[in-house]
Amino acid sequence: MSIRWKWGALLVAVAALCAVAVAGLAGARSTAETLDIYGFGPGDDVANGRAEIATKALGGADVNNPRGGFNDQAFLAQLASGKVPDVVYLSRSSVGTYAAKNAFLPLTNCIKNEKIDLKQYRAAALKEVTYKGKIYALPEFTNQITILVNNDVVKQAGVDLADVSTTKWAKLRQANKKMLKTDGGKVTRIGFDPKIPEFFPLWVKWFGADLVSKDGLKAQLNSRQAIAALEFTASLIRDHGGWNRFKAFRDTWDFFGAKNQIAQDQVGAFPIESFYYNVLADNSPSVNITAKFFTNRKGGPITLFAGSGWAIPRGSKDQSLACKWMKSMTAVNTWVAVAKSRFDTRKRQNRAFTGLYTANTRADVKIFEDIYERLGKKDFDDAVRLLVQAPRYGFALPLSPGGAELRQAYIDGITRVLAGQQTPRAALNQAQREAQAAIDKNK
Amino acid sequence: MASVTSTAAPGSHSRARRWLSGFRERETRYALAFIFPWFFGFVALTAGPMIASLYFSFTDYGVEQIAGFEPTPFVGLDNYRTLLDDPKIVTALENTFTFTLMMVPATMIVALALAMILLRIGRAAGFFRTLFYLPQITPPVAVGILLLLLFNGSTGIVNRGLELIHVPGPFWTTDPQWIKPSLVIISVWSVGGTMVIFLAALRSVPQQLYEAAAMDGAPPWRRFKDVTLPLISPALFFNLIILTIAGLQTFTEVYVAYFGGGSAGAEAPDAALMYSIYLFREAFEFFKMGYASAMAWLLFVIIMMITLVNVVVSRRFVFYQGGQR
Lengths: 443, 325
What we know:
The complex is a heterodimer.
Chain A: H1 3-32, E1 34-38, H2 45-56, E2 62-64, H3 72-81, E3 87-91, H4 92-100, H5 108-113, H6 123-128, E4 130-131, E5 134-135, E6 138-143, E7 145-150, H7 151-156, H8 169-179, E8 181-183, E9 186-192, H9 200-205, H10 224-238, H11 243-250, E10 267-273, H12 275-283, E11 289-292, E12 294-295, E13 301-304, E14 306-311, H13 319-329, H14 332-348, H15 361-371, H16 378-389, E15 394-395, H17 403-418, H18 424-442
Parallel strand pairs in A: 1-2, 1-3, 9-10, 13-15
Antiparallel strand pairs in A: 3-14, 4-5, 6-14, 7-10, 7-11, 8-9, 12-13
Helix pairs in contact in A: 2-13, 2-14, 14-15, 17-18
Chain B: H1 2-22, H2 26-56, H3 63-66, H4 78-85, H5 87-120, H6 125-133, H7 140-150, H8 157-164, H9 176-189, H10 192-203, H11 207-215, H12 220-231, H13 233-248, H14 252-259, H15 275-284, H16 289-317
Helix pairs in contact in B: 2-16, 4-16, 5-6, 5-9, 5-10, 5-13, 5-15, 7-14, 10-13, 13-16, 15-16
């Protein structure tokens, strides 16, 4: 072998060694500084925009954000395999179940180390993720519930808009009867859809009562108030000829389409989450609507919060990185930046921007004051103004260790009442027994 | 006594030697090689988890144990005792048995009728065989959604069809009385697999038996009852067992239609609560893995008992050509 060949071989060997060393170092670095997320995945412009901002806040660490939402089965498999994600994104209503089973870490250290200002978050949203005095998740989106009224139906039925209100149940029932339509034993228009069992906690709150005690350890499903709320809401459905007719018709709605139930005058009014105004503005911007507060018996506004949050599972390999991510994803500046971006995009596309509704009070104020512009359509402009105010009247069910079973117990009970199988009292008594047994077992 | 032992031992030795010598034969080795993948799969993916679930059924296995945070507490027969006290188990079993009792005969009758029609239509049989089999390959998730669309009490095609003949259609998907019949009808729609087995059995019935029966003056019904049914009884028995097991384990279509957050939403009626769905809920929504394992074993025992009864009863009714049972 010539000297030239020898030098060549030596150079190749050194280069190969260097490549292996660099690859090894890079691999080691990416393993140590990769944030594994579960339950978020690439989403819409708001999700992706915030993810970009939060990634920058990690100081160069990689982010592994696989597609797909949070799934209990998949998460359990991850726990069992020991490959636990660093941070998870899930519905706030599920946080309690995992917190009670020690599967999530309390965020006490995270909040302290990252100096996260809890005052920026809505109190009711924080309550949803607080278990035994400790916070287990940072709240993100919030969907507040208001009443969406179809003005055309109200006018056709000769109903006073003021009577389409939950303050006076007798008047609401009269309005319901006037607005609904049936034809040959079939419902062709729903008057007022109380949206039970989904929004049942809101109807119980009408009395100022809750379905579970403040500490989440005592079910209150068969309280006098809950039974009365179920009797009234079931009567609104009974006015249509019963649950079978009511639901069969409701199942035919094109809820997310251009021919939705408002556009087709298939409903007079119903309580709905804030996201739906965005759906209407996109798909049927010419609908004639009014947004009203869901009110309690004294006429005061109330709204039920629902939404998502970020939590750190026990076994997370990089809690500090996870904490930075959560902080950034829910920060005022992040929300404002993506809201501005969405507003600009929609303006270019000549589409409506009906705001973003988050669990961050300060972000919501800034988005509404600095970015939002009136759409020029009174119905939607008024609706947005109401939606911005609604969160201050929000409440959430206290976090309970048997949260999932409690919810299932009252849903099953209400379904039995609607199907005519049980009276409200009997159904809620059974639900109470089931829910309390679940709480006692899980606490 | 000693003489008895001494005479028995060489016989058993020779039997063992013969059995062992079988492994030296090339065919046996090939057969074992072919069986091995299934055997491995059975041990690793079926028997192993089954044994594990039997163990879990005597424990309070939940999220903490899955994640390894806490040791698994042994609770003895508590989960099985809870099964006896759980009213939802009774509801779920009632629903599942009712569904199975309606679905199995309905599927077998329709499948047999279709197979007999296919046998007679000659050249177009291939086209219709494919047509009838198509629903079988429709994903169960799609079938679940289809159920809600077809059987909607307000605008569903089924009720519209009934209206044409002036029959008021029921509220199939919301009325607890009609939920199971609608599930049976949608199950019968996917009858292709059963039909193909019947078709193969019908083709194997010797034609001369029909000719002899016809010469003896047997009308079509007698020929069907006394010739066709006995000769296809092994296929009937096979389908009976398979459909019964499928009925008792029914899950996907019902879950998608009533429990999966589709248009039916969260308000799933008790009438749709099948045993496997309740089991899934307890395991993966409420994380009661120990209890769900006990439920799984109860279902296994029920299926085994029903299958054994079927096997015993079949000895009187199933006719195997060549006399083998």
